[in-house]
Each structure stands twice: as structure tokens, then as C-alpha cells.
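Support request from a user on the community tier.

User writes: "When I paste my C-alpha cells into the form, the page sometimes reloads and wipes my input. The last time it worked, I copied everything first. Here is what I submitted, just in case something in the input itself triggers the reload:"
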């Protein structure tokens, strides 16, 4: 860390965005404004499906593929989610999306970067570009920012992987996916993405905030692969357990 920044943080120690206390021991690194206690208490998604990151019971062994992926193989090749979409994580993401807490993107992006570095990179080639799941223009104007893009910026900066801002657009303003069943989500999202230009990218990393049934990222992966992308991975803040 630069000297000036070090000095600043010792003069003005940051406050934990979860418990509002002064951060004595930061989680993982200085750039994350979450204290170690709060970080450890978050629902980390440690036991999950090896392909879609669906939360699985804690006692399940590593490397298991869930029943849904066996039945219907997803079009993306791998997916990692930092947390389960529960408790404090729901609040954190709501604040980021609807509470104008755009500043939270930095801490969240830093946490995702740590995961990217530890879990994704050792296993495979570095992706050629990052694509944040696009919002429809109308929603982007309402909110003023795309939370996934804000997170992607942090990861892009730290990994030197470019963000392909203009590669994909969201063609239809789909109904909100909230409250829809898995099958309804799939139909609702069909054809929602239009590929503008994926250049000669072969390996794309999608960044999303919350993956629920996976129908959005699956549809985006379908569009990308139809346009010649060979490998599609996903990194998200949280993955929801699927309701049946
Ligand atoms: Zn805290
Ligand atoms: Zn799965």
C-alpha cells in the first residue's frame, strides 16, 4: 500500500459496512471494509455443485455435480459464488443494488478477486475478457449504474483483464425474475441478450451479482457460444438455494 494511503487509513480507520464498528482486523486485506468477525460470520458457499455453484449440504464431499446439472448440463463451463444468498448477504446486495451504496462494490470486488486468484486461476487459463451481466437500458437509467459492472471494474483492474463493455446488450426489458419459478425464468429470459461484438475472445468470464436458478447466465452463455466463444465462466457474489 502506498505511504499516503497507509497514513490515511491509520488516521481514519474505516468502518465495517456490516457492523459499523471501526475495522481493527480487516477481512483478508486492507481494501475490504468488512471486519474479520463479520467476514467469517457470512455464509460462505463452501459446499456447492462443482459446475453451477448451487449450495449443497455442508457434509457433502468436494467435486460433486448437482442433480440439476446432471439432468440438464449448463452452457457455461464453470461457476463460482462467494456466498450463499442468505442473511447478511441479502442485505449487503440490496444495499449495493437499491440503496445507492455503490461504494460497497469495492469491498465486494476485492473479495471476489481473492476468490478468483485462489480458486479460478490455478485451475485454468486467464479469461480473455470480463462481461458484466448487462442491464436493459431502461433499468440502467433508473438505477444509474450496473452493480455487476462496478464489481467487474475492481477485478479488471487487479487482473488486467479488460471489460468488454460493448460486447453484449440486453435486448428485451424482461420482467423481473423475482418470484418466478425455474421454468418461468427460463422462458422469461429466452433471447434476452444480443451479441454486438465478441471480437476473437475465446474465454469469457461473466460477472453477476446473484445467481438464482442460473437461467440468466445460461442464456448469456448460449448467446456467447453461438458467436464463437469457446469457454464461459461465471463469478458471482452469491448463489441462491433453488426452491423446488
Ligand atoms: Zn463488522
Ligand atoms: Zn449444478
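"...and here is what came back when it finally went through:"
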Amino acid at each position: 500500500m502506498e505511504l499516503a494511503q497507509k497514513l490515511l487509513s491509520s488516521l481514519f480507520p474505516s468502518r465495517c459496512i456490516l457492523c459499523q464498528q471501526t475495522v481493527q482486523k480487516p477481512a483478508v486485506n486492507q481494501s475490504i471494509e468488512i471486519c474479520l468477525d463479520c467476514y467469517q460470520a457470512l455464509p460462505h458457499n463452501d459446499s456447492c455443485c462443482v459446475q453451477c455453484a448451487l449450495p449443497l449440504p455442508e457434509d457433502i464431499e468436494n467435486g460433486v455435480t448437482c442433480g440439476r446439472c446432471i439432468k440438464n448440463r449448463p452452457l457455461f463451463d464453470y461457476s463460482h459464488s462467494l456466498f450463499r444468498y442468505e442473511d447478511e448477504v441479502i442485505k449487503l446486495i440490496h444495499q449495493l443494488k437499491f440503496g445507492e451504496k455503490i461504494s460497497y462494490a469495492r469491498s465486494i470486488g476485492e473479495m471476489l478477486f481473492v476468490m478468483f486468484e485462489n480458486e479460478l486461476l490455478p485451475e485454468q487459463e486467464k479469461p480473455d475478457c470480463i462481461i458484466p451481466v448487462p442491464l436493459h437500458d431502461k433499468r440502467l437509467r433508473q438505477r444509474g449504474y450496473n452493480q455487476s459492472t462496478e464489481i467487474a471494474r475492481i477485478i479488471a483492474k487487479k487482473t488486467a483483464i479488460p471489460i468488454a463493455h460493448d460486447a453484449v446488450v440486453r435486448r428485451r426489458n424482461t420482467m423481473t425474475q423475482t418470484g418466478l419459478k425455474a421454468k418461468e425464468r427460463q422462458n422469461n429470459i429466452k433471447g434476452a441478450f444480443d451479441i454486438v461484438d465478441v471480437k476473437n475472445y475465446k474465454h469469457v468470464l461473466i460477472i453477476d451479482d446473484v445467481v438464482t436458478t442460473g437461467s440468466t447466465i445460461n442464456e448469456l452463455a448460449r448467446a456467447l457460444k453461438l458467436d464463437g466463444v469457446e469457454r464461459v465462466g461465471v463469478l458471482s457474489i452469491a448463489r441462491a438455494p433453488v426452491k423446488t
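Agent notes: The reload is a front-end session timeout and is unrelated to the input. The chain has one domain: 44-239. The two ends are 47 Å apart (CA to CA). Escalated to web team.
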